Amino acid sequence: VQLYQASPEGASAATISRPTAGPGDFAGLVHLLGYDLQGRPQSGLPLYVTLYWQATRALEADLKAFVILRDTSGVVAQWDTQPVGYLYPSHLWTPGAIQRDPWRLDLPLGLPPGEYRLSAGLYRAADGQRLDLVTQEGGGGATEFSLGAISVAKENLPADARALPVQTRLDANLGDEVDLVGATLNQASLAPGKAL
């Protein structure tokens, strides 16, 4: 369950546990002030990230945001959505107010433990055009703000797959190196058209 605060009174700069070294200035419209991480990043589990945005002036159009986790070979996890949820679109943001924006980024099972780079950015919802970062020198071009390195730990799986808590044990061999241990259903019955 993710909770959103749908009001112009988001947070204060004092509540940001990992402030950015300088504001991530996106096209002179929005600053990324920092982020928080909840828990310890672990392979196969969600990574909960909270971003803190601040509009520098009234926004005429809605924006979308993205969070990306990369290793040296590329993207390992990414999520795009409207910042602060759909209850409080960015065109309603009060200039100067800090918006608390919680995210859930699903880390793949089997992601090797190690250092990864976390970044975030904004783009226009209407056409998908990313907003450029404006540097202190006035230059642009980059569209992602690096939040820095995070360390991902190995998942805590039982050493023996037979020790996994499954409702229906199948123990079926699906080919080279793949065994289906079993399945657990969250519901006893399903109605047509419902998700399983």
The class by helix and strand makeup works out as mainly beta
Number of helices: 0
Largest beta sheet, briefly? 5 strands, antiparallel
What is the N-to-C succession of helices and strands? EEEEEEEEEEE
Query: What number is the mean pLDDT?
Result: 83
Low-confidence segments: 4-9
In short:
Helix content is 0%, strand content 44%. The protein has 196 residues and is mostly beta strands. Strands 6-3-2-1-8 form a 5-stranded antiparallel sheet, with no helix packed on it. The protein has a 4-stranded antiparallel sheet with strand order 5-4-7-9, with no helix packed on it.
Question: Care to describe what's here?
Answer:
Residues 4-9 have low confidence and may be disordered. The strands form 3 sheets. Strands 6-3-2-1-8 form a 5-stranded antiparallel β-sheet, with no helix packed on it. β10 (168-173) and β11 form a beta hairpin. With 196 residues, the protein is an all-beta fold. It has no helices and 11 strands. The chain starts with 17 loop residues before the first strand and ends in a 13-residue tail after the last strand. The chain has strands spanning 18-26, 30-38, 46-55, 63-71, 74-81, 98-106, 114-124, 133-134, 145-152, 168-173, 179-183.
